[in-house]
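Question: does this match?
>
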Amino acid sequence: MMILVRAVCAAALFGLLAVSALADDITDAMDQAKKAYSAGDLTNAKQQLDLASQLIGQKNAETFAALLPNPLSGWKAEKAQALATGAVAFGASVASRTYTNAKGDTVEVQITGDSAMVMQIATVLSNPQFAGAMGKLIRVGQQRAIQNSDGDVNMVINNKLLITIQGSADAASKVAYANAIDVAKLSKM
């Protein structure tokens, strides 16, 4: 009987450890918000929800960073940068990476999501007449994009993500990096 009790206690402890290992900062913040709300502490509830939102934004930015393209032949890439801005600047999760070739030309690829600004740009891009006023319409795979007079490329994926490719490199290099983005994976986000 004592062996059975120990086995049950060990299983319960293992289960508790497994559940606590699955908990993370985001769910902890949401749980704290729920407790604060239930206790009538609306200020703390809001702060905890803001924290959870910021942490989710950071996690999104890190996911975007992992989806930035590898350097093309003849180019070197800096370390990807990931940032979540919360309510500042319309709120956004942003990942970017700069690529440099032997001549010193640069291309910066940036992925922005979680922002009301993306929806506004998506509205413009969806109307070819408005988009055409912002630059030349081009195709990047199956995506419609705008290329400005400097060769910079902007495209919106699923009305949720803004891809910006800019830098000192020529227009062809910027389009090559636009084509190197895994749009299929980003579309699933």
